[in-house]
Amino acid sequence: MEHIVIIGNGISGVTVARHIRKRSNKRITIISAETDYFFSRTALMYIYMGHMKYEHTKPYEDSFWKKNRIDLKKGFVSEVKPKDKKIIFNDGEEMAFDKLIIAVGSKSNKFGWPGQDLEGVRGLYAFQDLEYLEQFAPNKTVCKKAVIVGGGLIGIELAEMLSTRKIPVTFLVRESSFWNGVLPKGESEMLNRHIKSHHIDLRLSSNLKEIVSDENGKAKAVIVEETGEEIPCDFVGLTAGVTPNIDFLKSSEIELGRGVKVNRYLETNFDDIYAIGDCAEQYQPIGNRRAIEAVWYTGRMMGETVAQTICGTKTEYKPGHWFNSAKFFDIEYQTYGWVNSERNKKENEIHFHWKHKDDTKCITVATDRDSGAFLGINTFGIRMKHEIFDRWLTEEKSTDYVMQHLSKANFDPEFYATFENEILSAYTNQFQTISS
Amino acid sequence: MSTVQRDMSLTGQPPKSLNGLQKVATVLGLSGLMIILLAGFNLNFPNKGLWLTISLVALTAGIILFAKATYANTQEGIKNDGVWFKSISSRGFWAWIAGLSLTGFYIILYFFPQFLGLRSEGANTGIIALFDPLSRLLSGNQASQWFVYGTLYTVAIFAFGVKFIWKYRHNRYEKLRTISVMFFQTAFAFLIPEFMARLNSESFNLPYYDLKNIWPLNYYNFEQYRVDSFISSGDVGLALLIFGVISIFVITPILTYKYGKRWYCSWVCGCGGLAETAGDSFRHLSDKSEFAWKVERWVIHSVLVFVIVMTTAVISTYLGYDSEKYWLTKDVFLIGVAVFLALLFGVIWFFKKEELKQDARYGAIGYLVIVLSFIVIHYASGSKLFFFEAETLRKSYGFLIGAVFSGVIGTGFYPIFGSRVWCRFGCPMAAILGLQQRLFSKFRITTNGGQCISCGNCSTYCEMGIDVRAYAQKGENIVRASCVGCGICSAVCPRGVLKLENGPLENRIQGNEILLGNDVDLMKYVNNN
Ligand SMILES: Cc1cc2nc3c(=O)[nH]c(=O)nc-3n(C[C@H](O)[C@H](O)[C@H](O)COP(=O)(O)OP(=O)(O)OC[C@H]3O[C@@H](n4cnc5c(N)ncnc54)[C@H](O)[C@@H]3O)c2cc1C
Ligand code: SF4
Ligand code: SF4
């Protein structure tokens, strides 16, 4: 029986295994060094905040794997030998494969800052990082102050986490406004205010220069590049993005860039070896997407795709319209299609921005100036329907059309106040192009 | 690896201690409780009306003040920080203390009311006597243990309802349905029946009737003494009796068709009302395993069968005793019940067989056979039903289900098993509503395309132990018999994935192998396969 070996039990590895099982009887082994069972990395924050326990973050009951004849193996793979079709574990054990799927995910970025490997300095990615955090920042007595370096989605989650334990947080953000490499100005500034309203000491345009050690090799302060200020702290969170976790592949002759290089079929330069999820890097980015997409659902979609190929229906990875979501403290965010920040947007992309007076809800709609076509929407504090926007994007609706039918896309719970009329009249005032 | 496993249960150390105002609130609330306890130890308060007022006001104010201290200085949003760290909400020491106290209270209430001060003759003493002034004010009669219970129950739903509204103040659905249960408890369960009692006289004798408490939850509604009193009370009584029948056979199916069982379980019902308000801190303790789901299906439907058999037996017995008095004869009644159930079964089987799982089909056939054979045997053998007298059935139902299951276990163990144990495993009304919700209702929870990140908040906070995530991560609508439509899964979802909706029956249940967002050709290829 063909043996499919999957390195990594994250969403991408687990999805590919499930779908192969649905369509075939092949022998499947999933390997991971992190936890015995698949858990949801996206829920790490909720464990620390006490909303859930580790058990609750496991999407399948432990009996699921046996029932579906998916072997789980705990271990760290230190080498892959593509030509011999085997992998080697760090304890010397070997395992043969017929097909290998690399789904090893990411690790936290470290940019060579002085002191980045001191005790009390850590990223937030793996379950072990959470245990580390629990050790160095269990409460405000052990950790009188924490500094977070890097203003992205994981950084703000870490800020929220620490603040639930009343640990004072200083948040160093390189950009002049939170996440403004991705978000347009109005949204980014609203988030600045929201972050501060949660008593986070948000420092914009602030880079980390160095982390200072105490006499025992533990971090005791950080120094800010721009001001030279030394901020005493007991924990430093490094959340300046993630990189594919592929150091163990360096000697394997598998072609690597920042990630494992793959074509549209998610194949590597070796037959029978595939890479999916956070660690896969497209030779050519797909549409406006990045070559490496480190989000949950793309890992899942790549898993769905490769499973078809492995089961005999060769399938290209062709993700549909971009979408994503996140939550910034109390404000939910969803995006459909492309809305670029001022920094990244092309000339023809024009924005309509509406913000509610309570300063926790806003939307930004991107339009092609020349054709009037709807390009995408960012929505904060208002839930919207994926299906509808996906259809509108496929049908290449105009922004005028979208704005007039916005209530169709509303996905807020029943009885919620709706803002479509207010939004539409703001839009009409601003553009006065409404025809029809 | 071993190190990982050992530390798997993170022992969080969040700020657990109470803040100043919370302490004041706790003392205030406990002092209210203290007065009641002292009365229980036969401290004879001089001015009972005054002391009762002080006690109830202190209780209510304590709870509301606690809510203020907890939520007033926070921003609108989900408030689940530290839920699994706090002793009371994570089956810790205080949870057991609370659970045991509540259980103890229920045991005394149901089985030893004399300890509350109930006297078979003469004036009440103790706690019940403390409540006499309020009872006299409302109904004109002296209090009973049920009056004490009803008052405390109403206070709990009211005060914890305020807390709940504070906690979910950003969510209009939660606020409205909480106001609704607070209203139905206060008006329908508590005040109206008391006022109705005022109308009673020699010739006019309505039984205590909480109009929203529908058979079979109100399993005694059609017992002889009640039916007799309804009939003896002229047109009003008859109207109420007819209303009792219509509630279950007409009103319930219509509303459940339109809105799902939530119209009752989360908007009207008192058991649900208590679970949603006082029980809110324990909702995440429900068992989410598939095994628990299996147990749930068997147990709740067995209770339903039990209540049908018991009620049929009880009614047919008194119809049999006194055929002069009731126009309905025992024979007609029994045959009617049998035909009705067989028809109902036939209709479900004919239209909805495909939607029933294997074990549900066996179960349905089995249950039908049992009920029909009970009826046949009963028909053949007079007042004996199978081996049991109708009266024995009634008593055992009242003891096992009415008292032990719904009270002692269902509410007493809130802090251990979660808040809706009764609603999920025991309530026959929920079973009926659930069957309809699953098979014939516009209600469903829709999921938002490919947005789910499988975090598990929804499943964790579902008080009915539904593994919501299992559906959401497949992009499948949630259409489950047990869902009470509390809306909390939707509220706690950090990605805006879930929405409670009433929509068309077509395509209400659909599962996708591949979610929205992937290549459209792949979705078509796999999903249609
Ligand atoms: C805190 C946090 C919050 C996030 N929130 C969101 C969110 O809200 N939305 C979103 O879209 N995305 C979010 N993400 C990103 C998302 O979780 C990832 O994109 C996704 O988990 C990647 O899945 P994967 O299967 O590719 O890899 P992973 O989940 O990283 O799984 C890889 C597994 O492989 C194991 N492994 C690696 N190397 C080896 C080896 N040599 N031998 C054995 N095992 C190995 C790793 O230990 C790991 O268990 C978040 C990430 C984090 C850290
Ligand atoms: S599924 Fe959602 S709405 Fe239904 S009972 Fe569970 S939490 Fe409440
Ligand atoms: S539906 Fe929402 S709460 Fe439930 S697992 Fe998905 S993202 Fe989490």
UniProtKB/TrEMBL annotation, chain A:
<comment type="similarity">
    <text>Belongs to the FAD-dependent oxidoreductase family.</text>
</comment>
<dbReference type="GO" id="GO:0016491">
    <property type="term" value="F:oxidoreductase activity"/>
</dbReference>
<keyword id="KW-0285">Flavoprotein</keyword>
<keyword id="KW-0274">FAD</keyword>
<protein>
    <submittedName>
        <fullName>NAD(P)/FAD-dependent oxidoreductase</fullName>
    </submittedName>
</protein>
<dbReference type="InterPro" id="IPR050260">
    <property type="entry name" value="FAD-bd_OxRdtase"/>
</dbReference>
<dbReference type="Pfam" id="PF07992">
    <property type="entry name" value="Pyr_redox_2"/>
</dbReference>
<dbReference type="InterPro" id="IPR023753">
    <property type="entry name" value="FAD/NAD-binding_dom"/>
</dbReference>
<feature type="domain" description="FAD/NAD(P)-binding">
    <location>
        <begin position="3"/>
        <end position="284"/>
    </location>
</feature>
UniProtKB/TrEMBL annotation, chain B:
<keyword id="KW-0249">Electron transport</keyword>
<protein>
    <submittedName>
        <fullName>4Fe-4S binding protein</fullName>
    </submittedName>
</protein>
<keyword id="KW-1133">Transmembrane helix</keyword>
<feature type="transmembrane region" description="Helical">
    <location>
        <begin position="49"/>
        <end position="71"/>
    </location>
</feature>
<keyword id="KW-0472">Membrane</keyword>
<feature type="transmembrane region" description="Helical">
    <location>
        <begin position="396"/>
        <end position="417"/>
    </location>
</feature>
<dbReference type="Pfam" id="PF13187">
    <property type="entry name" value="Fer4_9"/>
</dbReference>
<keyword id="KW-0479">Metal-binding</keyword>
<dbReference type="GO" id="GO:0051539">
    <property type="term" value="F:4 iron, 4 sulfur cluster binding"/>
</dbReference>
<dbReference type="GO" id="GO:0005886">
    <property type="term" value="C:plasma membrane"/>
</dbReference>
<feature type="transmembrane region" description="Helical">
    <location>
        <begin position="178"/>
        <end position="197"/>
    </location>
</feature>
<feature type="transmembrane region" description="Helical">
    <location>
        <begin position="92"/>
        <end position="112"/>
    </location>
</feature>
<feature type="transmembrane region" description="Helical">
    <location>
        <begin position="298"/>
        <end position="320"/>
    </location>
</feature>
<dbReference type="Pfam" id="PF12801">
    <property type="entry name" value="Fer4_5"/>
</dbReference>
<feature type="transmembrane region" description="Helical">
    <location>
        <begin position="21"/>
        <end position="43"/>
    </location>
</feature>
<feature type="transmembrane region" description="Helical">
    <location>
        <begin position="363"/>
        <end position="381"/>
    </location>
</feature>
<keyword id="KW-0004">4Fe-4S</keyword>
<keyword id="KW-0411">Iron-sulfur</keyword>
<feature type="domain" description="4Fe-4S ferredoxin-type">
    <location>
        <begin position="474"/>
        <end position="503"/>
    </location>
</feature>
<dbReference type="InterPro" id="IPR051684">
    <property type="entry name" value="Electron_Trans/Redox"/>
</dbReference>
<keyword id="KW-0812">Transmembrane</keyword>
<dbReference type="InterPro" id="IPR017896">
    <property type="entry name" value="4Fe4S_Fe-S-bd"/>
</dbReference>
